[in-house]
Amino acid sequence: MKQIDTIVWDWNGTLLDDVALCQHTINRMLAKRGLPLLDHERYQQVFQFPVIDYYRKAGFDFAKEPFEVLAKEYMDYYQPRSMQCPLHKHVLEVLDRFQKEGKHQVLLSASRLDLLKEQLQHYPLTGRFEQVLGIRDYYARSKAELAKQFVKESGTDGKRIVFVGDSVHDYEVAKQAGCACILVANGHEHKEKLLRCDCETVDRIEEVSALI
């Protein structure tokens, strides 16, 4: 991947270590409804995009409560608490290294853009991303269209762009955009799911540096 000059980073689970909070948030909602809770292993196994499918696998019954109502309840609890989540170890070192090497770095998230920017204000990330891209609602359906639009507007050959994320969806997004992908297995999805994707998978973010 030595020809890469643009890195598109995922946020939740990849740079931001919010897995424990997300697991706690969904378990709080499950407990409220008398449903079985998710341990860490089960959480990583059922988590997926679109998030509506994840909620279904977690045990919610949309015949009783619409997904939109559940998604709002989730975000109302998660968002203010997410500001206390740490970045994964070595995130700043990796971002700074790529910046010094002249790589273009972009943040692309399935989070609603205004909520994403609210989170970013709490971290020392100013000036590290040339663009911050997010979706228009908090239903986390897909960021594929955003990715394809970014690649098209960048004018950069897709072979020179790599997406870095922690989910199967990140791989799918990269593939649809015609770009390479690296998955980091310390986020929201289980490593065995990531290994089924036709791309590089590493355990920690600092290992990304050795691949680019």
Protein traits:
six-stranded parallel beta sheet, 212 residues, 6 strands, 9 helices, alpha/beta
In words, what does this structure look like?
Strand 4, helix 8 (168-176) and strand 5 form a beta-alpha-beta unit. The chain is 41% helix and 15% strand. It has nine helices and six strands; from the N terminus they run βαααααβαβαβαβαβ. The protein has a six-stranded parallel sheet with strand order 3-2-1-4-5-6, with helices on both faces. It has helices at 19-32, 40-46, 51-58, 67-82, 91-100, 113-120, 144-154, 168-176, 191-194; strands at residues 6-9, 104-112, 131-135, 161-165, 180-184, 200-202. By secondary structure, the protein is an alpha/beta fold.
Annotate the secondary structure layout.
Elements: E1 6-9, H1 19-32, H2 40-46, H3 51-58, H4 67-82, H5 91-100, E2 104-112, H6 113-120, E3 131-135, H7 144-154, E4 161-165, H8 168-176, E5 180-184, H9 191-194, E6 200-202
